[in-house]
Amino acid sequence: MALYHVHLSYGGKGQQGGGARGFHQYLSRDGVGDGVQFHRYLEREDGHGKDDLVAQGHGHLPAWAQDSPEQFWATADRLERKNGPVFFHLQVTLPRELSPEARAELAQDIRETLVERYPHAWAIHEPMAKDGSGVQPHIHIQFSTRREDVERDLSPAVWFRQPNHGGVAKDKSWFTKGRLQDVRASVALLTNAALTREGIEAAVDHRTLEAQGISRDPARYSSAHDRDDRTRTMTYRRDLRESGALAYEQLHTYAGWQDQAHRLLSLDRQYVKDLCRDHVWRYDRSPARDREREQSMARTFDLAMRDREPTHQREPRQARRHDRTRVRPPPHTVARQLRRLAAALERDDHAAAGAALNVRLHDREQEQDRGRGW
């Protein structure tokens, strides 16, 4: 089943060895021989994380950084004020079910939707999962919340000053709970659209298990260094998988995604990215964001008008049939599979994990407009 994980955190000045520069080296797997905290993580006994770098890059760095993220983060370590975050870190899982090319496209869409206008560096890692199930692709994005929509000729010392002293202002929205909720919802939509474009009948859901109508304890690791805790959690997840509970939940999630997808004009990358960006930044009234909204509105209008073209001007039916960016009404097979699997779980007296599962089944047509809209 497709996995979903979004984690947002920040690093303050002096909070960890190596600082922002050291964290960037960790992401890019540079300087493994150094003795700082992040590199000791790479040298752990299981060798996890040494050779898992797939791709890396950066964007929107100021001119004085000379297109060098390491220089930018070293300067941030030196000039950012005390008691404030030097960088934010966003980690997002990329489904292993996607092809490498589709994972790279999804990572690009996430970056462009969320951090395109911030100085940032990123890296895609693909370590092996600890349960031996295969690779565990994910992207790390390290970014500064100082946003300069129109670049000015500033020295580094001035660039990191407070706005009232001529510096670049920090975007305070990243400290709000609503920002993380919007990020999670957008990542889910971008991920589900990418899976559908590749013909993969799987989906993720950014909501809590309770909000999804699933009453069981989440499989969480309480300590990264507690082997007994990891063993208990992995055993619990295995029991859920073998009992059929996870398969049931996946079908439930996929049915919900089908409901949401049928309210979209298309699953085209640009359309979905416009939709997510306009949602995440709907309260941002800067000139740059206003221009983005106007551009996305024009593209959406063009897309809607193409769908209204006369029949004789449309592409052949055979070509359209395989276009996965166009959404078609789902068959009722998903609902039937859900009910069959639920009945099987109820009959299985030995499914300990499944016995604790209680998913509220709803008629999908009645659920069309509940909790899925934008």
Quick structural gist:
The protein is 42% helix and 9% strand. With 374 residues, the protein is of the alpha+beta class.
Descriptive notes:
This protein has about 375 residues and is an alpha+beta fold. It has a domain at about 5-170: BirA Bifunctional Protein, domain 2 (2-Layer Sandwich), CATH 3.30.930.30. The protein has 13 helices and five strands. The chain has helices spanning about 20-30, 35-40, 70-80, 100-115, 155-160, 175-195, 225-245, 245-260, 270-280, 285-305, 315-320, 335-345, 350-355; strands at about 5-10, 55-60, 85-95, 120-125, 140-145. Strands 1-3-5-4-2 form a five-stranded antiparallel sheet, sandwiched between helices. α6 runs antiparallel to α9 (about 270-280). The protein is globular and about 65 Å long. Mean pLDDT is about 80; it is low at about 40-45, about 315-320 and about 350-374.
List keywords for this structure.
374 residues, alpha+beta, BirA Bifunctional Protein, domain 2, 5-stranded antiparallel sheet, 42% helix
Give a topology summary:
Elements: E1 6-12, H1 19-28, H2 37-42, E2 53-59, H3 69-79, E3 85-93, H4 100-114, E4 120-125, E5 138-143, H5 156-159, H6 177-197, H7 227-243, H8 245-261, H9 269-280, H10 287-306, H11 317-321, H12 333-347, H13 352-355
Antiparallel strand pairs: 1-3, 2-4, 3-5, 4-5
Helix pairs in contact: 1-3, 4-6, 4-9, 6-9, 8-12, 9-10
